[in-house]
Design brief:
This protein is an alpha+beta fold. It is built from twelve helices and 14 strands. The strands form four sheets. It has a five-stranded antiparallel β-sheet. A four-stranded antiparallel β-sheet has the order 11-12-13-14, with helices on both faces. It is globular.
């Protein structure tokens, strides 16, 4: 780990201004993604801008209209244990409860996870399936425009996520097949029904989270797991590793999509 300057701003405006004044700074939220990267020297920022002083400003869970609004510094444990989340989108509480271990859930934040955009993280599937919008200090970004590639998002340099807004579904479910050690998803599928429309978000299977239009069209006609029989998932862009080949991941996407639909019911 290389030397860096550590900053402790107290407001969003101060954090953004401080980051802007650095030559190669990074924001630090819960640190569950960034600190391991720093320890491996995969990133060497000149400055770390801690967001710990912004907890009061950016840690909250509330309902506005038909949206569940979660502040960027809200921890996974807070999402998992929230009565509001359990009432409005219970499957999101289930997702958060399966992230990492107790230590990770009590330190990691939704904003940090979404900004890091690990292709095997859980939240990207929810962002896509729940038609979320990501609000930053500058603008609002739609779910379908946010994830670009492995660890790459639509965020511009120095742009800070302030909250994530999820649309309340009629029904929704999330299931994943995870690595037993890390709890990261080998395959994770989130299914959400909005009246006549259905959205399906997949994480873990590829180098970036993605949607499945064929699954969505079939489930829109009948929200029944059986309608997914016979619909093949292309292996072309899926991760192909020794422990989980592309053809295996393709099969698991279908299996866990079916299970997510069952969970939604």
């Amino acid at each position: 780990m290389e030397n860096f300057v550590f900053h402790t701003p107290k407001t969003v405006a101060d954090a953004v201004s401080t980051r802007k004044g650095t030559s190669g700074g990074k924001f630090l939220a819960g640190g569950q993604s960034l600190i391991p990267v720093l320890k491996l020297d995969l990133a060497q920022p000149t400055d770390l801008v801690s967001l710990a002083g912004l907890k009061k400003e950016l840690s909250y869970i509330k309902v506005e209209g038909d949206e569940l609004v979660i502040g960027a510094l809200t921890t996974h444990a807070d999402v998992a244990g929230s009565d509001v989340v359990k009432k409005i989108i219970p499957s999101l509480a289930v997702l958060a409860s399966g992230i990492g271990d107790a230590q990770v859930r009590n330190r990691g934040t939704i904003g940090g996870s979404v900004a890091h955009a690990d292709p095997a993280a859980d939240y990207p599937a929810a962002i896509l399936a729940l038609d979320a919008t990501i609000k930053t200090d500058r603008r609002t970004i739609k779910a379908d425009d946010f994830f670009k590639a492995m660890f790459e998002t639509a965020l511009e340099d120095g742009e800070l996520i302030t909250e994530v807004r999820f649309k309340k579904p009629e029904k929704a479910g999330y299931l994943k097949f995870n690595n037993p050690a890390s709890k990261y998803a080998i395959v994770g599928v989130y299914v959400a029904k909005y009246g006549p429309n259905v959205r399906v978000g997949v994480t873990g299977a590829a180098t970036v989270a993605f949607r499945l239009p064929d699954f969505e069209a079939a489930l829109a006609k009948s929200f029944d797991p059986k309608v997914l029989d016979g619909i093949k998932v292309s292996e072309e862009d899926l991760v192909n590793e020794r422990d989980a080949k592309a053809d295996y991941r393709a099969q698991m996407v279908t299996v866990f999509a079916k299970r997510a639909v069952e969970a939604a019911h």
